[in-house]
Every structure is written in C-alpha cells, then in structure tokens.
Amino acid sequence: MATHLNLLLGGLFYSATLFLVACGLQLIFGVQKIVNLTCGSFYALGAYFGITVAGLVLPLGWPPQLVLLALVVGGAAAGLVAIPLERLLRPVYRRDPSYQLLLTFGLLLMFQDVFRFFWGATPQTIDGSLYAAFGFVDLQGSLVAVYNLIVIAASAFIAIALWAFLQRTRLGRIVRATAENRQMTEAMGVNTSRIFTAVFAIGCMLGTLGGALVAPTTAASLEMSAELVVAAFAVVVIGGLGSMFGALAGAVIVGLMKIASLIFYPEAEVLAIYLVVLAVLLFKPEGLLGRKTV
User: What CA–CA distances, in Å, run from 233 to 35, 82, 140, 189?
Assistant: First the structure.
C-alpha cells in the first residue's frame, strides 16, 4: 500500500510538470493555431536554466525555499526567448500546418545544438541535497517527498490562475476573442500582434517553468526535448486540441497510466499510453474535452 501511494504521487508529480508543457501548447494553438513542436525544447531549456541557477546560488548557502524561488524565476525568465521566436513564426500563421510543423521541428533541432554548445552533451544535474532539503512526510506509512507535493500544488495553482486570467480579466477576454475571431478583434482596435506575442511568451514560459521545477529530480539531457514532445502531444490528443481542461485531464490520465503500468506490467509503460491515444482517436477523435470541428 505504501509503495503504491508513492507511485501514485510520483504519477501525479509527472502529470503536474507534463500539464504545464501541454497547457502552454494548448494556449498557443488555441489563440494562434500554431502546432508548436518546440514545446519540448522550452521544457529542456527550463531544466538547463534551472540547473545553472541552482548551481550559482547553492554555494551561497541560501535556504532551500529561496533556492526554489530562484529556480522558478530563472526557469520562467528563460521563456522570454519566445518573444523573438514568435516574430520568426509570424510568416506561417496563415499557411498550411505542414509549414508550421516543419519550421518548429527545425527549431527543435536547432535548440538541441544550442544546448550542446552551452551545456555540452553530458546530462546535467542539481546537487541532490536541494530535493532532500524539503524533507519527507509520513502518509499512511509511506515517506513522501515534500518537494513532489509542492510541485503538484504549484501546478494546480497555475491551472486555477490561468483559468481565472482567461475568464475573469479584461485581457483574458481579449485573448479569447482573438482566438475566436481575429479579424473582428482587429476591427475593434485590438493590436492582435501584441496579443500573439504575449500568448506565445506565456505558453513557452509555462514550458520552461515545468522544466525548471522538474530539474531537482532528474538530469537535463539533449534527449528530453523529443521525449517530452511525444508525451505532450499524447496529452493533447487525449484531452482535445485547444482545450485547457483537456490538457489537465490528459496529463492526469497519462501520468496515472504510466504509474499503473509500472505497478502491474512495467514492460508496457509506453505501450499503455499509446493504446489510450489510439482508443481516443478511434472513438472520440476530437479528444475527451475537445470540440468537434465538423
């Protein structure tokens, strides 16, 4: 029972970081209709930046709470690289999706070379003392890492804050109006180019933040970009393209399926997720919470 609880919380931790990336992917697609394959690269960028920031502040003897704050700020700041990249993507906004896929896939490959240039080909890690510094709590006889609970809570808070921003603020309503009808929004005097830049930056910052939060628990490597892209698109397919609640539901399903596979049949860990994707594509192609477009 204790082992299963640890695995369950581990699955929710994975879901929490995966949700941030998929949420950014959904936000960008929902407003700009761009299928952004570089979402995995931003996740890796956040992880590398987080490791670099932690390496700078840990020797200063900062308490773990401040180190985590620096990690979050550094990870989010790394997402600002999205501003010049958004300008690069503008020529393909109104073109066939194949152009978008080719351009963003090319950017993903370029990011891998950037990572190799600045951080080398060897996986980078943070001193394990940061993860352990937050301690453990006893839940039903199982020792659970407090850091995992912090990340799960942070992801839930971000989901609620993003929903409140889109539904309850003036800027959020403008973003939703731009997603529904760009031409009408422009006719009402809204600078949609700025909205696109802001949305793309927010979406990418969610990805880099997810990478920074996961950095204390894993190594940043050149392969993590491609691995995360596959998982993020599985989440999007399951939840429904363009649906924020779909991203949340899809991330939880993927995380729990991953853990269920580890408990009952570890060899089928990857296969189980794609069986769910296949079932959704066959019986509900628009996703569990997506809208039909026909």
Answer: 10, 20, 35, 35
pLDDT at 140: 73
In the prediction, which pLDDT does 45 show? 94
Which residue in 104, 101, 61, 76 sits closest to 20, CA to CA? 76
pLDDT of residue 293: 46
CA distance 249 to 261: 18
Alpha helices, DSSP H only, in 33-168? 39-57, 64-78, 82-89, 97-119, 129-133, 146-168
Question: What pLDDT was estimated at residue 128?
Answer: 64
Q: How far is CA 293 from CA 29, 70, 71, 287, in A?
A: 14, 43, 40, 11
Q: What pLDDT was estimated at residue 131?
A: 86
**Do residues 55 and 44 make contact, with C-beta atoms less than 8 angstroms apart?**
no
Rounded Cα gap, residues 182 and 170, in angstroms = 16
How many other β-carbons are positioned within 10 Å of the β-carbon of residue 283? 7
Please report the pLDDT score of residue 292 as a whole number: 58
In sequence order, what are the residues at sequence separation of 6 or more whose Cβ sits closer than 8 angstroms to the Cβ of residue 246?
26, 236, 238, 239, 240, 287, 288, 289, 290
Cβ neighbours for 92, distance < 8 A, ≥ 6 positions apart: 34, 99, 100, 103
Give how far Cα 254 sits from Cα of 48, 157, 203, 246, 290, Å.
24, 20, 20, 12, 17
pLDDT for the residue 99: 84
| Domain range summary for the chain, segments of one domain joined by + | 2-219
For residues 197 and 30, give the distance between their C-alpha atoms in angstroms, rounded to a whole number: 14
Query: In angstroms, rounded to a whole number, what is the distance separating the alpha carbons of residues 46 and 207?
Result: 7
User: Tokens 């936000």 label which residue?
Assistant: 27
Q: Give the whole-angstrom CA distance, residue 144 versus residue 158.
A: 22
CB atoms within 10 A of CB 264: 9
| pLDDT < 70 regions, the chain | 1-4, 128, 291-294
How far is 10 from 220, CA to CA, in rounded Å? 18
